[in-house]
TrEMBL record:
InterPro entries xref list: Chromosome_partition/occlusion, HTH_ParB/Spo0J, ParB/RepB/Spo0J, ParB/Sulfiredoxin_sf, ParB_dimer_C, ParB_N
Keywords (A to Z) from UniProt: Chromosome partition, DNA-binding
SUPFAM superfamilies, per database record: KorB DNA-binding domain-like, ParB/Sulfiredoxin
Name of the featured protein: ParB-like partition protein
Pfam families, per the entry: HTH_ParB, ParB_C, ParB_N
SMART domains (UniProt xref): ParB
Amino acid sequence: MAKVALGKGLRALISDESIHIINKRQDENGEHIKYRDTKSGRLGSIGNVPLHKIEPNPYQPREEFDRSALEELKQSIIEKGIIQPITIRVHGEKYQLISGERRLRAAKEAGFTEIPAYVLDIKTDEEMLELALIENIQREKLNPIEVATGFQRLIQECSLTQEQVSQRVGKDRSTVTNFLRLLKLPEEIQTSLRKNEISMGHARALITLESLEAQLEIWQLILKHNLSVRKVEALVSRFGKEKAADETETAEEERARQRNVDELNLESLLREKFATKVKLQHNKKGHGQIVIEYYSLDDLDRIVETINSIG
């Protein structure tokens, strides 16, 4: 019994070992090889499909397509053909793309009328969404924001946990978490990351800053001076230390202000008690003295009597 060799992305969804050819048949699309995934029981086929019968992927995570890269792929397809099939599902009278939009576009531009495809037996939109996102995240060269958005959609629309997402896409959970954190960056920085103006390393350094203003300020420095990731990390670290110092100074000022208020209240209380001027004096170590003024010996006797009465 022969085996069907699969590409890297599809292999993550259906392993080579779990797929066996069960029969062949001819239809209007050319020769299709039917197979069954022995793990999930899913039926599918491999063959050439007319381009005009393939609809776009409504769950495509890629938002931008590099024109020069697409042109290179088109020339490669003209010279060598389409080496890796796209993946699709049956959708009414037509098919719906799961992954391989760059190959599909390049094939159309190259003048092809059909394209090799894995036709998967996907019936629910939820399953389609999950497979489309996972397949594209694993196979395509998405920018970090597109990957992060894909992870977020898997969590929100497919009700997956971060741990489940990490298992589905074959990445560490910490990697998934780091990508998701990118979506907390200001929109300007996210756009810059999409355009490859800054790298994932730059973005991860900026994320550690709590202040959006600081993130934008350092981001602008990156663009202006073409700063390396290491220099940005140093800037962020220095900013953090300065912020901590500022917070410490602010805290000390607040304590001093509060101490002054407390001293004034205590001095006022003592003045009322002794009916004379009272001053609290202390040094930075917390040592000090209470100065009670008197204006005659009789006044001193009165103060002493007041102190004795307190005892």
